[in-house]
Amino acid sequence: METGIPVYIGSNSKEGQIYQCGVAGLTFFLRRKLTRNPIANRKKEVYMHKIKYDKTQQSAISAGVDLYKSDGACRILPICGGAGTGKSSSVTEIIRQVKKIDQSSIIRLAAPTGQAGVVLNKMLKKSFGASPPIPPASTIHRMLGCQGPTWAYNRYNKLPCDLLVVDESSMLDVEITERLVSSTEAKIIMLGDDGQLPPVGAGAPFRDLVNAGIGIRFKICYRQLAGSMLFESIELVRAGKVPIFGKRGEDSIGKGMLDDCFWHEQEDTEKVAETLAEIIHPWHRDNKSYMLVVPQRVGPVGFLKLNPIIQSIINPGPSAGLKIFGQLIKAGDIVRQQKNNYKLGREGVFNGFLGKVLHASPNGITVEYPGWPEPEVVVYHESEDWNALTLGYAITGHASQGSQADNVCCLVHPSNWYALGRQWLYVAMSRAQKECHVVGTERALKHAVSCDDTVKRNTYMSLAFKELAERSGRREGE
């Protein structure tokens, strides 16, 4: 937890404002002002490339294009919104319009994790086809040329870029945000969701920017409006309310909604793994995209305990395979990559990747990772490479952040009482694109939605950003 060290507010010089946070040395070089919410008097809905944009989305698109065209007065535009609010479609339209203005413009996409980068690349190829007009997304560390303690791009050697789009910005702590902002002169669009888990490191700069009223917030979840019980429940959790659930073969609790969110009562710790395996087994058998999210790594229902049990139920098979730190990995298992490896695959295999083992022997292991439009098969020949693999049937909420799956199962059990929270449950459920199952007890569920983890981050940055925004507003009106 942070100690709330005061933020120093720099001078009112024309060159910019400098903020310094003693906790992790965050310094924002903001050229004169940040981009406020520019909601203009536009048509309520407009169509671009057969996509219908509402007033707020249209304003975000206009603000993103204006940011690019500006002469340096504005540098950062935060766009905040939950799952299904249209952040991705809006930013692809910004990219499309910027490329129309200047085909030679350098646009980069980045994300905190490799998994989030894969989601960005999938979005690119869906929007632009097999040959997008910009390079594939990369992790922030790779983009800035991180090599241990050294960085190829820094405040003295700037990254060549005109417009930088950073997804999952809510995962950025103050240190990496400072490094990102000071290592390029590019205009930066930060996409994020302030309802997600706070960064692992110090601070929550994206949340502080949004709380200061800077940028644009998308409030309408279109998947919810389409009649999805799942996305209705996700929005309820975000608001601190108990989600609603349906039951197959029975009248829906959320009448008139698509039954795509289900509840499974299970308090017996000894039976939790069996219940979880029963839910995910059909997805595993039919090669469907799925994810099992649990609150903790250790404990009676932590993923270290659950993974071997679930493996024995779902993939009992022969004992032949590859032992990695005493853990037997067999063909048919789900594995998780635990560190970035730029040598493997077409563009590298990144921390957080989940894949299915096609072949395993003492001489190596072959894993199929989801890709777009086709999966990617990666062969591990060396122990230094395969030692980064572990069973991945169950993962934590932080590990799941930035990724997606068609089907998700998450656990809210009293054994994880102190790890449960609204942001954790929101992240876990919002990974699902089609169907979500929640296992646990009603008491633990109510406890989870009532615990707001954001109050644990005490910083002065939100007040500092707000003061800067107000000063900028006063100068504009003078």
N- and C-termini, Cα separation: 41 Å
> How many helices does DSSP assign?
15
Task: Give me the secondary-structure category.
Answer: alpha/beta
The number of E-state strands comes to: 25
> What fraction, in percent, of the residue positions are helical?
25-40%
Largest sheet: 6 strands, parallel
C-alpha geometry: globular
Give the low-confidence spans: 1-47, 474-478
- Tell me the strand order in the biggest sheet: 8-7-11-12-6-13
Approximately what portion of the residues adopt beta-strand conformation?
15-25%
Alpha carbon gyration radius: 23 Å
Report the mean per-residue pLDDT as an integer. 81
What topology emerges from the helices and strands here?
Elements: E1 7-9, E2 17-21, E3 26-30, E4 45-48, E5 51-54, H1 55-69, E6 76-81, H2 87-101, E7 107-111, H3 114-128, E8 138-139, H4 140-143, E9 146-147, E10 150-151, E11 163-166, H5 174-182, E12 187-192, H6 205-211, E13 216-218, H7 222-225, H8 229-238, E14 261-265, H9 269-285, E15 290-294, H10 303-314, E16 322-324, E17 327-329, E18 334-337, E19 354-361, E20 364-369, E21 376-380, H11 383-386, E22 389-391, E23 394-396, H12 397-400, E24 405-412, H13 422-430, E25 432-440, H14 442-450, H15 461-477
Parallel strand pairs: 6-12, 6-13, 7-8, 7-11, 11-12, 14-25, 15-23, 15-24, 24-25
Antiparallel strand pairs: 1-2, 2-3, 4-5, 9-10, 16-17, 18-19, 18-22, 19-20, 20-21
